[in-house]
Design brief:
Radius of gyration of chain A: 18 Å
Radius of gyration of chain B: 12 Å
Shape of chain A: globular
Strand content of chain B: 25-35%
Number of strands of chain A: 10
CATH topology of chain A: Rossmann fold
Order of helices and strands of chain A: HEHEEHEHHEEEHHEHEHHE
Number of helices of chain B: 2
Number of domains of chain A: 1
Largest sheet of chain A: 7 strands, mixed
CATH topology of chain B: Alpha-Beta Plaits
CATH architecture of chain A: 3-Layer(aba) Sandwich
Strand order of the largest sheet of chain A: 3-2-4-5-9-8-10
Oligomer: heterodimer
Chain lengths: 262, 74
């Protein structure tokens, strides 16, 4: 069978979502942000919520997220996306509001905002991209940087005595009663991307059902910040990041419900 | 002979040559081209098109969403 006979509209099985704007992203080759933007776009299209979705863009590489997903966006100051999202969702309770943040944004400067927004149980979805580094500014150490990991500000590797422990922020958030769904996923393989998409879909559905805060961490790569090729960065992440940041659901109940045991 | 045939169309200008699709392909269909696109990236292409089963793994992992996948049963 000739390739031209296969490439026909009736045989189409996978294509770019119409919610995703047809432009070339500014992200580096192999960046996990692109995959997460793609699955968010696909979900917004599949769940038919484009008209009622408001995204809160962070500071970091994803600051230009509003250029790539065709929904309403609001830019927030560094770390303040959950605080801005609180205001947006309280004034527009019928909209679907999500905050999109990286680890330098959420776990460092915005740690207070995210903990209190989750503790209040604001009805929003938080997408947390954890790549263990400040990617935009040149690969500096973040709170989530692993012990011994070399970054531009820890050239000898992160030292726990000097810099503290890598912060498991998602485990902290799972303890807060305001959250309904807290999970950690990754996007390094096709299977992981499909699982991450299911988790994000559940998070969006929880927000539409007004169940409280849903929090989805995505363990990601920063091939430029880590000074690796994209494929090596994915393998390094699977070997080093995922043992410290194990994947899976940490809480899946209702607002005020208990933390699950797994 | 496979019962399912697939085909992949890579948006040559959108591809940044990260190679994640090449790694994700279970059939070793994709490879990075020796040529470069207008931005200097070695874009992905179907090196071995007969082996493609249209599983869409490459499209799912592509960070730049530049892969379109077709599949037909034969």
């Amino acid at each position: 069978m000739d390739i031209k006979d296969i490439i026909k509209p009736e045989n189409l099985v996978y294509d770019k979502s119409k919610v995703q704007i047809d432009t070339i992203m500014h992200y580096c080759p192999g960046c996990s942000h692109g995959v997460v933007h793609k699955i968010l776009s696909e979900l917004i299209e599949e769940m038919d919520i484009q008209e009622k979705t408001i995204g809160i863009a962070p500071v970091g590489c994803a600051v230009f997220a509003y250029n790539y997903i065709d929904i309403d966006w609001q830019e927030a100051a560094h770390g303040r996306a959950p605080a801005v999202a609180t205001g947006v969702v309280r004034l527009n309770p019928d909209k679907f509001v999500f905050a999109y943040q990286g680890d330098g944004d959420l776990a460092s400067i915005g740690a207070a905002e995210i903990l209190h927004a989750c503790n209040r149980g604001e009805n929003l979805l938080v997408v947390f991209i954890n790549n263990a580094t400040y990617g935009m500014t040149g690969g500096q150490m973040a709170p989530t940087t692993l012990n011994g990991m070399v970054t531009s500000t820890t050239p000898g590797g992160r030292n726990i005595d000097l810099n503290g422990y890598p912060m498991k922020i998602t485990e902290l958030i799972a303890q807060l009663p305001g959250t309904s769904y807290v999970t950690r996923q990754a996007v390094h393989t096709a299977g992981a991307v499909r699982k991450c998409k299911r988790s994000l879909k559940k998070g969006i559905q929880n927000v539409l059902d007004k169940k409280g805060t849903s929090f989805v961490e995505v363990v990601s790569t920063c091939s430029s910040g880590w000074k690796m090729t994209p494929v090596d960065a994915n393998n390094w992440m699977a070997e080093n990041m995922i043992p410290y940041y194990p994947l899976g659901d940490m809480k899946d109940s209702v607002k005020g419900g208990p933390v699950s045991e797994n | 002979m496979a019962k399912v045939r697939g085909a992949v169309v890579v948006d040559k200008e959108g591809c940044k040559g990260c190679g994640i699709c090449v790694d994700a392909c279970p059939q070793d269909v994709l490879a990075l081209n020796k040529d470069v696109n207008s931005r200097g990236y070695h874009y992905s292409y179907m090196e071995n098109p007969d082996a493609c089963i249209g599983c869409s793994n490459c499209g799912v992992v592509c960070p730049d969403t530049c892969i379109t996948i077709y599949r037909v049963k034969i």
